């Protein structure tokens, strides 16, 4: 078992916190405790502190902030009827430096506070500062010393990256703090990016190539540092910093290209099947968590003793509220793979930006079918294992379902069988990866069904049994069948960086330099992987809930509900009703860039007013990032970086559009709790004007 995946939240600053120690080769682990900070003056203590840095990244996926400050308020996701973090999506008057509570209008006490990221990132930075300050004098073995320093520089760079991406200029504290300090200076954003880039450069130079120090596939390497160095350089040269970054642009972009090229050469090629990254997760520490494409992940496993403060709760946030609108036909359970907390509802843009016919990523990402795992009434003609929820992801120009009735507990439409090419859905034999294509039987009763478009109108938001839509096709990248309780932690790793993004980062750098041919080459690498391969069954579906079947922790639970709930089929042919059944390969390769783009991309160009070659190139790459990286915890910062947050949120997120404001919401509010705790050098409190000077514009 990889010892890094056994680490809890790790050592921060305080004496007596519990942490995982390791032996000289970093591979063995034992639980230790009751050490004072003097332990950090020993080689063993400083190595233990280095290992503990991996615990800091688990924080990002332990609670509601995982989606609140990364996915909400963007073009890709809006809120469903759950309103826990609604203010992060709507940018209303509850979104500010103090944070929302039930007393200020939050729906519940779980709303993400603006200080959540701020506080946790500085905890990790403090540990890094200790390692960097002590390594040279404490550790004589050069290899071990450089290993510790590489990790400390990397995490400090990563944590400052996250802080600056969210808040702009922040406090740069790069040395251990002695005593209580309550007077700080806020560095400029330019100075902050200089620090981030310096830390990543140091990490990049110190890492031992692709040596997996703590276990294959989960620990940081030179390619990890290269990826984030490129992202930081690209951020500094992007639109959000245009008032001061002109002198950096060309050199930063060229250095970023070189860094990407190292990672691509060292860790390529891409995983051939997109499903292997997320859908084909078969259980704890399965081989697909060790893929070379994965550059960084927050490690999790089933060892309850080492979970620490933050487990993996991400399985809760992407599913529709199936147990509510299904009228009882589809019940919650660990076999489902997710909780139906309905936090992140895809926007019309998100469904529409895919090529519904040729892009396999769409059908390997969206879950469109749930099986009935209980019988509500026998008279309905539905038995356990029949389709209980069916979501048809058709396109705007599809007229097949114009007169059909959809919703909860209605008769499925008796649409025309197009040229006899739509066979029945359930004929008594369950679908397998190699079986024929299956579709809904004409006239079959389906307790719950929905469609995206009728008569050219986007009607998906009207399907609900709550004031706000709670019936939608969620994404499956966090589904986990290894949970042992409905609300228990997930045991799967959370991918934080992978090589497909590296290709898109390099493509954007090329595009910004006007090298559109090189950019198209990199984009096509990603799109070729996304094509249907010859022989693939396009209506086959699976996800990480399949781990339930092989999870030894669930041996006491009947597999009946798993079999009933997790039908291995999607609505590909129902969503493309004029398409003949095929197993032919598809082709997504661009032949022109940045002009003459696919129709779905050209529609976005019109909507956001992208006219120049550079604008079109950047917006296409933003679209491709949606198709490739949907839900992967970084959309808000990407849109803020490119200066497209306001424009795309207004264009594609109806809930965000009324309130999102230029020159305000491109940055998060500096936490008021931090500002209120500051003092002047003489110990006096900050004046109102001094406090206002600390705050970001508009707050």
Description:
The protein has 699 residues and is α+β, with helices and mostly antiparallel strands. The chain contains 22 helices and 12 strands. The strands form 5 sheets. The protein has a 4-stranded mixed β-sheet. The protein has a two-stranded antiparallel ribbon with strand order 1-2. A two-stranded antiparallel sheet has the order 3-5. Helix 7 packs parallel to helix 12 and helix 12 packs antiparallel against helix 13. The longest helix has 26 residues. It is globular and about 75 Å long. The two termini are 47 Å apart. About 8% of the residues have low confidence.
Averaged pLDDT: 89
Roughly what fraction of the amino acids lie in strands?
Answer: 5-15%
| Low-pLDDT stretches | 6-33, 410-439
Task: Output the number of helix runs.
Answer: 22
**What is the terminal-to-terminal distance?**
47 Å
Specify the helix fraction band.
25-40%
- DSSP, total strands: 12
Radius of gyration: 25 Å
Shape annotation = globular
Largest sheet: 4 strands, mixed
How do the strands of the widest beta sheet line up side by side?
A: 6-7-9-8
Please identify the structural class as seen in this structure: alpha+beta
């Amino acid at each position: 078992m990889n010892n890094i995946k056994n680490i809890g939240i790790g050592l921060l600053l305080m004496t007596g916190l519990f942490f995982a120690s390791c032996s000289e080769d970093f591979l063995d682990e034992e639980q230790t405790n009751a050490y004072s900070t003097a332990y950090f003056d020993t080689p063993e203590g400083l190595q233990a502190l280095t290992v503990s840095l991996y615990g800091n990244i688990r924080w990002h996926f332990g609670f509601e902030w995982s989606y609140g400050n990364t996915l909400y308020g963007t073009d890709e996701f809006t809120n469903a009827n759950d309103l826990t973090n609604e203010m992060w999506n709507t940018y209303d008057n509850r979104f500010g430096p103090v944070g929302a509570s039930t007393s200020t209008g939050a729906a519940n006490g779980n709303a993400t506070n603006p200080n959540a990221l701020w506080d946790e990132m500085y905890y990790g930075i403090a540990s890094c500062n200790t390692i960097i300050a002590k390594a040279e004098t404490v550790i004589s073995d050069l290899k071990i010393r450089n290993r510790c320093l590489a990790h400390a520089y990397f995490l400090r760079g990563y944590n400052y990256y996250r802080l600056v991406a969210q808040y702009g200029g922040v406090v740069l504290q790069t040395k251990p703090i002695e005593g209580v300090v309550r007077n700080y200076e806020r560095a400029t954003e330019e100075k902050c990016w200089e620090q981030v880039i310096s830390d990543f450069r140091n990490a990049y130079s110190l890492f031992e190539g692709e040596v997996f120090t703590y276990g294959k596939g989960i620990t940081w390497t030179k390619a990890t540092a290269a990826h984030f160095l490129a992202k930081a350089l690209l951020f500094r040269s992007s639109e959000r910093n245009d008032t001061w970054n002109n002198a950096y642009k060309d050199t930063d972009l060229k250095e970023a290209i070189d860094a990407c090229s190292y990672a691509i050469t060292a860790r390529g090629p891409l995983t051939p099947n997109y499903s292997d990254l997320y859908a084909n997760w078969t259980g704890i520490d399965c081989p697909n968590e060790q893929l070379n494409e994965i550059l960084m992940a927050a490690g999790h496993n089933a060892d309850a003793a080492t979970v620490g403060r933050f487990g993996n709760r991400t399985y809760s946030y992407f599913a529709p509220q199936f147990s509510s609108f299904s009228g009882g036909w589809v019940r919650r359970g660990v076999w489902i793979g997710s909780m139906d907390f309905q936090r992140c509802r895809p926007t019309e843009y998100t469904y529409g930006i895919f090529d519904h016919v040729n892009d396999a990523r769409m059908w390997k990402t969206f879950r469109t079918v749930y099986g009935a795992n209980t019988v509500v009434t026998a008279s309905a003609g539905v038995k356990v294992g029949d389709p209980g929820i069916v979501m048809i992801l058709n396109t705007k120009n599809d007229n097949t379902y114009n007169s059909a009735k959809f919703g909860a507990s209605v008769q499925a439409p008796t649409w025309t069988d197009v040229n006899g090419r739509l066979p029945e859905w359930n004929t008594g034999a369950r679908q397998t990866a190699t079986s024929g294509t299956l579709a809904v039987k004409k006239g079959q009763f389906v307790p719950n069904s929905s469609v995206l478009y009728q008569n050219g109108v986007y009607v998906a938001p009207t399907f609900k049994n709550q004031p706000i839509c709670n019936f939608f096709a969620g994404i499956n990248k966090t589904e986990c069948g290894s949970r042992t309780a409905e609300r228990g932690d997930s045991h799967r790793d959370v991918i934080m960086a992978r090589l497909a993004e590296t290709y898109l980062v390099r493509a954007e750098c090329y595009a910004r330099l006007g090298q559109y041919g090189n950019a198209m080459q990199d984009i096509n690498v990603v799109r070729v992987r996304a094509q249907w391969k010859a022989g693939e069954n396009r209506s086959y579906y699976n996800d990480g809930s399949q781990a339930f079947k092989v999870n030894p922790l669930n041996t006491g639970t009947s597999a009946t509900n798993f079999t009933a709930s997790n039908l291995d089929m999607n609505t590909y042919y129902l969503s493309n009703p004029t398409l003949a059944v095929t197993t032919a390969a598809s082709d997504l390769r661009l032949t022109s860039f940045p002009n003459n783009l696919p129709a779905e991309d050209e529609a976005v160009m019109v909507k956001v007013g992208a006219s120049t070659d550079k604008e079109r190139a950047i917006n296409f790459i933003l679209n491709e990032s949606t198709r490739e990286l949907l839900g992967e915890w970084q959309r808000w910062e990407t849109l803020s970086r490119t200066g497209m947050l306001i424009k795309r949120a207004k264009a594609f997120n109806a809930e965000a559009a009324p309130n999102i404001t230029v020159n305000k919401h491109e940055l998060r509010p500096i936490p008021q709790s931090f500002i209120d705790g500051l003092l002047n050098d003489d110990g006096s409190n900050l004046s109102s004007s001094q406090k206002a000077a600390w705050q970001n514009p508009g707050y």
